[in-house]
Design brief:
Elements lengths: L4 E5 L5 H10 L5 E5 L11 H17 L4 E4 L2 H14 L4 E2 L2 H11 L4 E6 L1 H6 L1 H9 L4 E6 L3 H6 L6 H15 L5 E5 L7 H7 L5 E4 H15 L12 E5 L3 H12 L6 E3 L4
Parallel strand pairs: 1-2, 1-3, 2-9, 3-4, 5-6, 5-7, 7-8, 9-10
Helix pairs in contact: 1-10, 2-3, 4-6, 4-10
Bound molecules: D-glutamic acid.
The site of D-glutamic acid has 17 residues, from α3.
């Protein structure tokens, strides 16, 4: 169906979700919104994150998207049910797909989740995992320093390794076999995380799991694009397009040009 998929995030991080969706569905048009005027969401309240998310979903609905993907874990944790109730267009978040994938991979059912302060406080991942398997044991930990470190580009930096060690060692000691990267930025420091945890712990990338969910949902609703040509990606932000382009290169690995700044109601 010739309608775009809408993806939104607090800023640049959701581009990890866009890149996974685009890889799986290269012929789909995508409209991405990054709320760069209000980033970060991870330290903000449920009320504020929900207000921003509703305004963005309204913008995307007006752009006639066929599906909205809440790429931001914090926005998914705080605002998903509100968006599902308020908008006619189907809305998907990143938490349920990540939770499902974690259970699929975990033999011991001892799972850890890391994310922003907001995501962890909401217990959304824990609730989603337990709702699917009430025998599972879930350990959740906020890792608020990871987002600024990634945005600084300190992907392989000694400081990032030290911070990761501080955050992750107590989780590894719990005997987990699965670790969910419950934040848009964490896939970028996958290597650092992998080197710290033992080889028996599987990392779950919520972005990857969400892309599969997008594909399945479009199939189920018969909303898949039929054309074989590459889809068009357009980008909207609430602050500096120049800064967004700079970070986009870091997250996507290539340059983007069509970035427009807009002001939301
Ligand atoms: N996108 C956010 C998330 O996945 C991380 C950045 C932020 O705090 O806004 O939770």
């Amino acid at each position: 169906m010739k309608k775009p998929i809408g993806i939104f995030d607090s800023g640049f991080g959701g581009l990890t979700v866009l890149s996974r969706v685009a890889k799986l569905l290269p012929n789909e048009d995508i409209i991405y919104f990054g709320d760069t005027a209000h980033v970060p969401y991870g330290s903000k309240s449920k009320e504020v994150v929900t207000k921003f998310s509703v305004a963005i979903a309204k913008f995307l609905s007006e752009k006639k998207v066929k599906l909205i993907v809440v790429a931001c874990n914090t926005a998914s944790a705080f605002a998903l049910s509100r968006l599902k109730n308020k908008f006619k267009v189907p809305v998907l978040g990143v938490i349920f797909p990540g939770a499902k994938e974690a259970l699929k991979s975990s033999k011991k059912k001892r799972i850890a989740v890391i994310g922003t302060e907001g995501t962890i406080k909401s217990s959304s991942y824990t609730k989603a995992i337990i709702s699917l398997d009430n025998q599972a044991v879930v350990y959740a930990k906020a890792c608020p320093l990871f987002v600024p470190l990634v945005e600084e580009g300190w992907i392989n930096h000694r400081v990032t390794k030290d911070v990761a060690k501080e955050y992750l060692t107590p989780l590894v000691r719990k005997g987990i076999d699965t670790l969910v990267l419950g934040c848009t930025h964490y896939p970028l420091i996958k290597k650092v995380i992998k080197n710290l945890i033992n080889g028996n712990i599987t990392l779950i990338d919520s972005a990857e799991a969400t892309a599969k969910d997008v594909l399945n949902t479009l199939k189920k609703l018969k909303l898949q694009e039929k054309a074989k040509s590459d889809g068009r990606h357009s980008f909207y932000v609430s602050d500096s397009p120049e800064k967004f382009k700079f970070y986009a290169k870091r997250f996507l690995g290539y340059n983007i040009n069509n970035v427009k700044k807009i002001t939301l109601d």
